[in-house]
Design brief:
Chain lengths: 222, 223
Amino acid sequence: MSATTFAGDTAYDDALADVADGATVLVGGFGMAGMPVELIEALIRQGAGDLTVVSNNAGNGDTGLAALLAAGRVRKVVCSFPRQKDSWVFDGLYREGRVELEVVPQGTLAERMRAAGAGIGAFFCPTGAGTLLGEGKETREIDGRLHVLEHPIRGDLALVKASVADELGNVVYRRTARNFGPVMATAAETVVVQVDRVVPVGGLDPEAVVTPSIYVDRVVVA
Amino acid sequence: MSRSKDEIAAAIAADIPAGSYVNLGIGQPTLVADHLTPGSGVVLHTENGMLNMGPAAHGDEIDPDLTNAGKIPVTELPGAAYFHHADSFAMMRGGHLDVCVLGAFQVSSGGDLANWHTGEPDAIPAVGGAMDLAIGARRVFVMMTLLARDGTPKLVPECTYPLTGLGCVDRVYTDLATFEVGPTARAAGGVRVLATYGTGVADLRELLAVPLVDATAAPADGG
């Protein structure tokens, strides 16, 4: 099914009206580049709690993911790099034992979502073998090198920020704001993409489309 | 005289072959970029999804959609390419990245790297792309001081900090010397000392608890 476009004053809220408690939410962005701030704000207003959030970082400053954490909606964070100079919201909750943390090497985080989107059951990866993050994982020597077995990460919902979409749901990104967006868009049951602009079908160069419309459920523009 | 950070960075830059695809880790390794000559054809990779990254952005050049792995605004050079995270890390694991330069808490004589976690109970673990870079790049160069602030060596027989990767480091560039480490060097008798700066190999033997092979007279192999 092609994507539904949400526009107007309540677009972000309308696009996220059905998020359930306990959902696993993939949140794009690397720092603030590609962070879908308006969608996260709508998720806070919507009220779903007990969420598992999968994202590269665990929030910066007091907006976006940090605001979702501060609102007490997140049970667990799966990320590669929670600790930053402006991650005080996460740091506080973690030290108080109010949020769980699973640290995943950045490339493994991306690949586990890629595997989910590509229908791969699990994969052996050399990253983390022989380290704390490889402990407890099935380990196998392949071509003389240790690998650990990694399982897919699948989301109920993906929140992605891109640049332009067409009315079918084809998406292009801008510069390094692309980061996790295209991978997360393949890996969730419901994929919501916020964009700066929507163009008519035929308005994007097919050679330049990064996320094809088959992956996208909802496009939000406001 | 020991080397300054800039002199270490210059030495690393000189050992990076022309035309290499290179990732410079967050922090001190970014200094290496200042010493790469425009004619070298070195292409910088940043793991958040870009090749041919340019220098830091200033003033009107700053674009929140264009940052490096340290989340600092940067610029793009002609020939730049953007890609998503799974592709970016496939470039590392797939053996396409020629060199990465990383900082370290400790490196072992066998080339084990510890640079992501102090292991202290109250520390919040954060690994980022360090483990992927350590095992992915074809050659891993470490840039660090030889001694920690408390005077203990950071080049050690076995790492005591939590590991980032096993047997992954090739060279260690420090203020006092440049070393070749790894399983091959260890099997050949120990860590090879490639160059020293103000401290002779005999003094380094006093300082370090790892066997050293004096290779300072060997001709430089250009990296």
